[in-house]
Amino acid sequence: MNVRRRRISGIAVTAATAIGLGTLSACSSDSSAAGNTDKFDVVASFYPMEYLAEQIGGDHVNVTTLTEPGQEPHDLELSAKQTAQMGEADAVLYLKSLQPAVDEAIAQSDVKTKIDAATLTKLEDHGNVEHDHGGGEHADEHAEEEHSEGGEHPLDPHVWLDPVKYAEIAEGVAKSFEKADPDHAADYRKNAEALAKKLGGLDTAFKDGLAKTDSKVFFTNHAAFGYLAERYGLTQEAINGLDPESEPSPARIKELQEEAKADGVTTVFYETLVSDKTAKTLAKDAGLKTDVLDPLEGITDKSKGEDYVGVMEANLKALETALGAK
Fold first, then answer.
1. Which of 191, 194, 284, 294 is 20 to 30 Å apart from 8, CA to CA?
2. Which residues pair with 62 in a beta bridge?
3. Burial of 255 (0-12, 13-18, 19+ CB in 10 A)
4. Beta carbons within 10 angstroms of residue 40's beta carbon
5. Backbone phi, then psi, for 224, in 5-degree steps?
6. What own/partner pairs with CB < 8 Å and gap ≥ 24 does 204-209 have?
7. Distances from the Cα of 48 to the Cαs of 66, 229, 230, 272, in angstroms?
């Protein structure tokens, strides 16, 4: 994506290169690890990919994930064991540009089926990264990267928060599973159709629930909800950019306070995997409420739902309340 290039674990890359993927995986005693089962072994990069693999694969797949529950996926660094596990898998499912460490490991891996979700739908430039990064310790670094990459905004990777785009990705994943494991193609197709119905129902619920609201503007901790906002006619204003860890400038905070008054904003949303400090400070200073809008980068015991659909339904309720849905 990415707002900041993060350092990939030198240990993981060096170990995998020096020892070799096959030797490393032989050391793994975890029977559920990728490559050690009779099923179609899929390594998923983080929760939204894991959910797709499980829903589409059903009983035929063994899914392992590189990002543990509660771990912020943008910051992931891979262990040597994880890199080895990937090399032994039948397929790897990831979203290129979200996790640089994963992208590098996959590029070096000889896993046969590499499924990049970013190629299965159209990523968009929501143009708010530069604006939202207005200051803070990473602003200069971010500006330098943009300059070096031709001055364009990075494309927004958070496509899974739009049920329609997520369904497009699911369709592509199903086709890849069918091709890689043709013996179970019919079941993958059937499972994908069932998932498409679930996602279609979610899309309808969002359309209906957000059709008439007092306000169309919502504030979030970081710019994860651009696709969702665009799909349902809303405007996302992020305290930070695409990077949840960057600090907003005092000017950005003042701007948001003024906008809250102008647009009837009632709530500042924060998320479960990163600090809520900035959101709560802004809310307190501007006399606003706070609530959770979950970017679904991982499911934890704090999540307001057990899976993707459950958390998205909770997100819809939170938005309906904050925006004054009728």
1. 294
2. 41
3. middle
4. 21
5. -95, -15
6. 205/313, 205/316, 206/163, 206/231, 206/232, 206/316, 207/232, 209/316, 209/319, 209/320, 209/325
7. 12, 19, 20, 15
The series of mean pLDDT values per 10 residues for the chain, 326 residues long, is 32 37 34 66 98 98 94 90 92 96 94 97 75 32 34 83 98 98 98 98 98 95 93 92 67 88 93 84 88 94 95 98 96
Gyration radius of the chain over CA positions: 20
Contact yes or no for 105/12 (Cβ under 8 A): yes
Of 131, 100, 94, whose CA–CA distance to 116 is shortest? Answer: 94
Cβ partners under 8 Å of residue 300, min gap 6: 69, 70, 272, 273
SS3 235: strand
- Under 8 Å between Cβ of 298 and 71: yes
Q: What is the pTM of this model?
A: 0.81
